Amino acid sequence: MKTVLLVVLVGFIGLHVSVFGRDIFKHRKNLGNESMPISIGIGFITDFFDTLGIGAFAPTTLLVKVTRQLDDDRKLPGTLNVSHALSCLLEALIFITVVKVEPLTLFLLVAAATVGSWIGSRYVTGLPEQKVQFVMGLALILTAILMTLKQTGMINILGEGNVATGLTGVKLIIGIIGNFILGALMTMGVGLYAPCMAMVYMLGLSPLVAFPIMSASCAALMPVASINFIKTNEYARKLSFGITIGGIIGVIIAAKFVTGLDITALTWIVIVVIIFTGLTYLQKSYKTKVARNA
């Protein structure tokens, strides 16, 4: 079953490269006004630290805002999913091959997240800018809270003493439903890593097992969700292309050379800035709503 999942993930790589590459080639003369060097830099930084456990969505949102690389907030969820798909697939291939996990549990939870992302992406593409700003603001603050719980050890406490590598019965059903919901929320900008980690801990799985489940879930759902975002033009092409290039390089370097890097201080800085960015998006959402009603 694990081999089947690896084959499926490789297939997703081909799918994403085909769909994304075809769209980039089709619009090659007008990809956008974003800076390619800055976009590549954003991808390298965010996926480098994503491989080390920080997560990519919230830091990407932060850097995109700081560097002013996106002038339409409606395209942010799509850009996040499209741009990080390949780097996340690469991470998943690494974790699945080195961590022992019960194949059926892994396959079913990944499948649930993928179906959730397909449904979620179809909903997100129809949201107006004001609602996207509101959702992104809440997503960032929720991400910061979960990152804080992880940093303080609150989430890790849930996994202490857990040795199981798979789920059965009611726990498996809960895991499937939970990952379905998390897959849908990820298309709206809510990172899957921390909530998925908390869920598998509470279901009794070993902390180490969380990594292949998290990475494989993200890896499978992103290319699927990206199809809808690309189809409806709800993403920034040049920005996504640059982040993809930088992200792949970042994952390779992080996995090979600096997996033991202490990122505690950096993570706390990221949490503070993410909260500020989340509040900024909520403020923008309020102003957009007031202007629309005026």
Task: Report on the architecture of this protein.
Belongs to the 4-toluene sulfonate uptake permease (TSUP) (TC 2.A.102) family. Keywords: Cell membrane, Membrane, Transmembrane, Transmembrane helix. The chain has 294 residues and is an all-alpha fold. The chain has one domain. The protein is 77% helix and 0% strand. The protein has helices at 2-26, 36-51, 57-66, 76-98, 103-124, 129-151, 154-158, 169-186, 193-202, 210-231, 237-257, 264-293. Helix 1 (2-26) runs parallel beside helix 10 and helix 5 (103-124) packs parallel to helix 8. The model has no long low-confidence stretch (mean pLDDT 83).
Per-chain topology:
Elements: H1 2-26, H2 36-51, H3 57-66, H4 76-98, H5 103-124, H6 129-151, H7 154-158, H8 169-186, H9 193-202, H10 210-231, H11 237-257, H12 264-293
Keywords: Cell membrane, Membrane, Transmembrane, Transmembrane helix
Organism: Enterococcus malodoratus ATCC 43197
Subcellular location: Cell membrane; Membrane
